[in-house]
Write a structure and sequence with these properties.
This protein is mainly β. 6% of the residues lie in helices and 51% in strands. The chain is elongated, with a radius of gyration of 23 Å.
Amino acid sequence: MKKKLLVISLALVLAVVGFSGCVEEDVPSTVTEETANVSFQVTDKVTEDFSHVNVTFSMIKLHRQADNDSEAWETITSDPQTVDLLYLNLNNINETLGVAEIPVGNYTKLWINVTKAVGVLNSTGLEVNITVPSGWLKIQQLHLFNITKGNHTITVDIDLESSIHSFHGGEEYKFIPVVSRMEHHHEKELKFKVHDQSKIRNMVGNRAPAIDITVDGEVVKNKLTVDSDVNYTFNASDTLDLDGDNLTYSWDFDDGTTDDNATVVHSFADQNQPYNVTLTVSDGTVEVSETIKVMIDKSSGQGQGNGP
């Protein structure tokens, strides 16, 4: 897949106040009653693998350090909006996701919520769902954003080549945002540009693991039919953690059996069905779970296959 970037811009458009500090800037700590209108825009570049990538952004918000060391979140947009990122590039346009009036002050975090992604493959024209296991892209630990007077643009490039992951020969895709570059412009002045990946890793909050489960080598969605008293191999070893954390696994087979290995061989008795098999994966900070409904095949004795 050729490199492609999702460009996310924060534009303070009314020239009242804007982002003017981050990373290497010394900024004041006071907060006034002045406000600014914030416009959030996205665009993207073409990709060889997809002809369309529709991403649903559900919330964008900024974290502000308020008076008396209290904290507050300022929401730029809370209305879900789906954007075809590749269409934006082909037509050389940006998409405004929301505009909000926010107080002047010091801001320390930018959080972007992505709830859904759907792509159309160039090779086949088929539409594929791209799972979004993490949800929030949390840009933080940036020392300080300071909103002051002027027109400002904050640009965040999300590298879709590194963000979209293919599993099992293209049977499944998952989207975990990876930031490749950040820039801050004030009027005609470039305030900072960060593209060092080690620095960016320190700016992006922990991302939840993306669970991947196969049973006897087959991809499982959420339902599985099996034969009773037959061994099946449950394999979660391809579970992905972009932060490189050590993962722990906890299986609960809903029949009194548990296991803490990534790969487990298990059989089911023909009773007390359905079995709700749950895998919980932890990276030491975040736990995520996935459940499979397991049914016993009573019709043919050839119970296998996974449901939609």
